[in-house]
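Memo to structure team: turn this sequence into structure tokens by end of day. - J.P.
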Amino acid sequence: MMSFTLASVVEALGGVLHGDASVTIDGIAPLEAASPTEIGFLSNPKYQSQLLSSKAACVIVAPAQEALALQRGACIVAEQPYLYFARLTRFWKQQRDALRQQNHNHTQAPRVHPSAVIDATARVHATARIGPLCVVEAGAQIGADTVLKSRVTIGEDCVVGERCILHAGVVIGADGFGFAPFEGRWEKIEQLGAVRIGNDVEIGANTCIDRGALDDTVIEDGVKLDNLIQIGHNVHVGKHTAMAGCVGVAGSATIGAHCTVGGGAIVLGHLTLADRVNISAASVVTKSISQPGHYTGMFPIDDNATWERNAATVKQLHRLRERIKNLENELKK
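Reply from structure team:
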């Protein structure tokens, strides 16, 4: 089991420690579930009622909660506890990976798994890691320190930047959904573009990003995509935008920088979202949004009978609107 003293944590990550620096922790846990040998954190003040009852060996808190935390016991005070927690998880993983390597007689796993298939014309940086059963097709490029987990497919001529993480089952550069109707059937439109992914991008398991029809599909630096997301052809996603699971973005949509899109939301094709737009979960974006802000578009859940009555009323709104306009006109005469 891996363990660290509180002193070593603060030495690595900063913050102000109140308590015994020699106390050892062997895990990170939620505040309410932490054991006396684990470290927890409080990032949202609305959960501070859990602080005094927490059994954690130490708690990471903001300056505003310092006095309350001291009533309980040891704490590390940091300006942004959630950010501190994020960096602690990375520190923990780095140390764990180093320990595992030592336990395997200092042998390092191959950077390219023997089962991976990489085309001779693909360019994979020497520091990239390619996992089991991955496929990197002709002309593709993989940047420095990028990690492809198992069964990732990078289509021909697609580019993945530096320090990216692509989780299991990701498909980059499948054909976009393009067909022309002709005499009752569909003629395929060849997708001649590619996908360009910037640096520091993370893509969740089984997410698919389609190649462009003519121009490339573009994912800019720092974008974070959750599992099971569909990005259509010729979509452009701006820097540091984040999307939760099961989001769908239809072809040729443009998503600005620093946006968030909640789980299950849909953005229709050819729309534009400005920078710093936040879309609520399960919303359907049916028009472009030109101003930053928080937007929601959904019909609240209800028992079925009530929902059907409300839906029937909504269908009559346009007719009711016309009747009201006519009455207003009559009153003006």
